[in-house]
Amino acid sequence: MADPQHWKPTREQAQGWRKRYEQNIKGRPLGDFAEAFWSQVDRGSDDACWEWRGGVDRDGYGRFRNPLGRRAHRYSLALSLGEPLPKGAVVRHACDNPPCVNPAHLSIGTDRDNFVDMIRHNRQAWSLTHCPHGHLFDEANTYIRPSTGGRECRACWKRKRSNSKEAA
After folding, report:
1. Dist. CA 105–CA 115, nearest whole Å
2. Span 18-39, average pLDDT
3. pLDDT tens across 47-59, in order?
4. Are residues 158 and 85 in the same domain?
5. Is residue 73 part of a domain?
């Protein structure tokens, strides 16, 4: 029997779970999930951020399985509008707070609008001086990915590589 800490589903199991998810969630009305959604929200005043208390993804956005996908702020805006979001729509935060799901802080925009917001609020990656783990981005500690030109902290990159070699 496999070690429970290292158990990974087979491809067939994963496909079965996805199929059941799509049968149980896709196509259902948005309102079917509202009670479960709002139970995970810490509502404050109308103008304050309403923090998502459920799980979050690596970018800090709330995760919530619903007919529209998995990001909680997208579901919140669709609920307030009373209809699904337009295809390809980007949901923008006026508050710059990823876990916020207050519909008053959310608006529909384009990728370009989101990019302009990123520049205006100085959130672009090249303005960061430290990696998420606190290591300084300097010449000695910055790895430039040849495939994308993106940068990564060498200390974190080395740790990630050594962990993947140990797992293999």
Report:
1. 17
2. 70
3. 999 999 999 988 8
4. no
5. yes
